[in-house]
Please model this.
Amino acid sequence: MIDVRTAPYAALALRLSMGLMFVAHAAQKIFVYTPAGTAQFFVSAGLPGWLAYVVIAWELIGGLALIFGVYSRLVALSFIPLLLGTIVSVHAAVGFFFDNPKGGWEFPAFWIAGLVGLAFVGDGIFAAVPTPGRRGKANT
Model:
């Protein structure tokens, strides 16, 4: 049974926490590793260096979209390929647990589960631009 009184707040909590994590990851790539350093890491992982700039922009813009509630359901779903890419290209080879050297795939997989939950529960309260589609009390 869904509690329609609190579900919009649950969606808000998911939006804010996941959006903040994506913005933090983008900021880390910009201010700590630098975009050029991030591109070098991508190359060392067998990916094209230019993809680092796409990922940084994706994390920053998408994270802000989640925080402000701009097409949150679609944005949440758009992050899943990015996280699957991190699992396949970096994290899967080092095992499940994220405290393994270079991090395992536990955290990105958990993040995907949260994004799927957000996509299902809806945009939540205080969404600036709700995802278009069927609306109802449980979809707020």
